[in-house]
Write a structure and sequence with these properties.
By secondary structure, the chain is mostly helical. The protein is built from 17 helices and no strands. The longest helix is centred in the first third of the chain and has 36 residues.
Length: about 350
C-alpha cells in the first residue's frame, strides 16, 4: 500500500525510473547476458557440461565438496556474471546432477560480477582508474573462492548426489579424458534433440529468463526512485552514516552503500563519484557492493531457485560474508599492490 501511495504521489518520477531501468536492461543486460544464456543451454544439450564434470571432478570434490560438473558453473559464472551461476545451478539440479546441499554451495560462490563490468564499467567508467581493476578483481573473485572453501562445510551430513558417487567399473582403467568424452556422448544421446530443436529451445528459455531479469530491474529501479523521492533513502543514509562512523569509514560513502544494497550499478557508481574521501575506502566499498550484488540480483537468484528445493538463506549469508571478505581484502592488499593514483 505504501508503494501504491508513492506511485500516486510521484507518477512522473516513477515513469522516468521505469524507463531508466528498461534502458539499462535493453542496452546493457540483454546484450551481455542473452548470449551466455543461449550458449549455456546449448552446452547442456550437447553434453559439454558432463565432459567438464568428468575432467574436473578430482579438483572440485576435495576443494569444494562439489562434483566436477560444478567446475563448468564456476567458469561460466565468473566469466558472465550474475545471475548465470544461479541459472546453471538450477539447471543441474533439474537434471539431478547436484543435490540440494551441493546446489546451495555452488550458487553461493558462483554469483559474481563479470570481468567486463568490473573492469570497464567500475574501474574505468566510474573510478576513471584502470589501475584499480587488478585490486578489485583479486578482492572480488578471491573472496568468492574463499566463500567456496567455507561453504564446503555447509550441510556436511547431506549425502553426495548419486551422480557424483558413480565410480568407473572395476578392472577398467581409462584416461580421464576418454571417460569425459564418453560421458559427453552418453549425455548427448540421452538428450536426443536435433540441433534445430535444441537451438530453438535454448533461445526460448533464454528469452523467458531475460524477461524476468528485465522486469526485476525495472521494479527495483522504480522502488529506489520512490524511496528517494519519499525521503526514506535520506533517512537510511543518515542512520548508516552513524554506523560507518563507528568503524572509521567516511560518511560520504553511506549513500553508495545504501544504493548498493538495492542495485549494484547505482552503488558502484556512487562509490566512484564520492567526494572528500580516500580512494582506498572508495575501492573497499565498491568491492563490498560488487560482492553483495544488490537486492535486484538477489531477487533474480531467488526467482531462479524458486523452481528448486535450494534455499535462499544460505545464499543471502554467503553474499554478506563475501562482501565483508572482499572489503577486507582491499585493505589488506592495498599496499602490497603498490600505490594507485
Amino acid at each position: 500500500m505504501l508503494f501504491v501511495l508513492l506511485l500516486a504521489v510521484f507518477p512522473a518520477a516513477s515513469l522516468e525510473a521505469s524507463i531508466r531501468g528498461l534502458s539499462i536492461w535493453w542496452q546493457v543486460l540483454f546484450p551481455a547476458l542473452f548470449p551466455f544464456f543461449v550458449i549455456s543451454e546449448l552446452l547442456l544439450g550437447f553434453g559439454i557440461v558432463h565432459f567438464f564434470g568428468k575432467l574436473l571432478d578430482p579438483l572440485m570434490r576435495p576443494l569444494f565438496r562439489l562434483p566436477g560438473i560444478g567446475g563448468f558453473v564456476v567458469t561460466m559464472g565468473y566469466a558472465s556474471g550474475y545471475p548465470v551461476g544461479a541459472r546453471l545451478t538450477a539447471q543441474l539440479w533439474e537434471q539431478r546432477l547436484v543435490n540440494r546441499a551441493e546446489g546451495e554451495r555452488l550458487v553461493a560462490f558462483t554469483t559474481t560480477s563479470d570481468p567486463i563490468f568490473l573492469i570497464g564499467a567500475v574501474s574505468v567508467g566510474f573510478f576513471h582508474n584502470v589501475a584499480l581493476a587488478p585490486l578489485l578483481a583479486v578482492s572480488h573473485y578471491g573472496g568468492g573462492l574463499l566463500i567456496g572453501l567455507m561453504m564446503r562445510f555447509h550441510d556436511r551430513k547431506y549425502e553426495s548426489s548419486a551422480h557424483t558417487q558413480a565410480a568407473p567399473p572395476a578392472g577398467r582403467r581409462k584416461s580421464r579424458l576418454v571417460e569425459a568424452v564418453k560421458a559427453m556422448h552418453e549425455a548427448r544421446l540421452l538428450d536426443g534433440r536435433p540441433i534445430g530443436r535444441l537451438l530453438q529451445d535454448a533461445v526460448q528459455a533464454a528469452l523467458r529468463l531475460m524477461i524476468v531479469v528485465g522486469g526485476l530491474v525495472v521494479v527495483f529501479s522504480v522502488i529506489m526512485e520512490l524511496l528517494t523521492s519519499g525521503g526514506a533513502i535520506g533517512v537510511l543514509t543518515h542512520i548508516l552514516g552513524g554506523i560507518m562512523n563507528l568503524f572509521g569509514l567516511p560518511l560520504s560513502l553511506a549513500n553508495a552503500v545504501i544504493n548498493g544494497l538495492f542495485e549494484v550499478t547505482l552503488g558502484a557508481q556512487a562509490s566512484g563519484s564520492a567526494a572528500g574521501t580516500s580512494l582506498v575506502h572508495q575501492a573497499a566499498i565498491a568491492a563490498f557492493i560488487l560482492s553483495w550484488g544488490g537486492l535486484s540480483v538477489h531477487a533474480q537468484v531467488a526467482s531462479l531457485l524458486s523452481r528448486t528445493n535450494l534455499r535462499y538463506i544460505p545464499f543471502l549469508i554467503a553474499r554478506l560474508v563475501h562482501g565483508i571478505l572482499a572489503m577486507a581484502l582491499v585493505y589488506l592488499l592495498w599496499n602490497s599492490l603498490g600505490p594507485i593514483g
